[in-house]
Amino acid sequence: MDSNFAAGRAPGVELDKALTFRTVHEEVAGPKWQSLFHYHWPAYEPWYLAEGERERPSYLECHNALRKHMPELLVTYRTLCEVAGGGDLSSRLLSLYRPPPYITGCSQAVLTRPTSTLLARNYDYPPELCEGTILYTRWNQRRVIAMSDCLWGVLDGMNDSGLAVSLAFGGRKVVGDGFGAPIILRYILEFCDTVPEAAAVLARVPTHMAYNITVADASGRYVTAMIAPDSRASIRRVPVATNHQKKIEWYAHALASETLIRERQLSILVDDDATTAERLISAFSAPPLFRHDYRRGLGTVYTAVYRTKEKLTQFRWPGRVLNLNFDEFPEEQITVRYGSRGLYG
């Protein structure tokens, strides 16, 4: 991988050790979110400063960027900054405006059937850098369940309108002026109800890196948006995304991540009328979609499944399944081990 791309960001575990996933329910940001912030901040601070503080935007730049592109999110942002202690550096990081670059893997697909629509994904990343927090909030009169990143950003999640989102790295080295994708996904879940509304956000809010964002809603609509800082968003009715965009640009990453192989596998599955939800979900638990390449930071950390009509969420690991919804969200912990021989509970 390119040394200009930061791998280390979040707290977690070293290889061959345990990562504990936590479900946290706190509708208004308070002591639970504050505890998460204080727990993760010692790891986030050095990551944020890895390129030097001058490389990061000032608080005023961060605030103005949010006000320009995602103004509805400002109240929540200011609240979280206050709960975090009001520090200048932490407030700048929480904006996720022009953060350090980083890369992920990931596979994601939408399966639509007459009675159901689901968005499934594998998150491929160094497990020691994953927060492992599944956060249930109601910050803007809309309930959201999401896998957290950068303390309040979203790797994947769903809101109580049945809108589900997921991100995958776009496989390009370009870095520019924009936001980290997790805060764009947070914005979508907080203020959008449908795929067309989400697509409008993805078309106008700038991103600092290339990402493939897949969105599905309760009506069975879906799109994948290929976003990047150097081009207009390409938003198409495509149900599958891995780690390249219109063409392969970063060949080393494409080979290491097997992006084309995974895309082909998913395309075959979703194009087959005989594929059921259970068949697609099972495919995410086996190669080539489920990956054990933890040494290179490309192993699968978890599988997420979002059923948009039923508004059900599911997180999966080999031998473990966690079912959650907006009415039943027990706070619990699941410990998973990632080692040289694979993943085990």
TrEMBL record:
Domain Peptidase C45 hydrolase: 115-318
Organism whose genome encodes this protein: Vreelandella venusta
Protein name: Peptidase C45 hydrolase domain-containing protein
Record-linked NCBIfam families: C45_proenzyme
Source domain of life: Bacteria
Signal sequence annotation: none
Pfam families for this protein: AAT
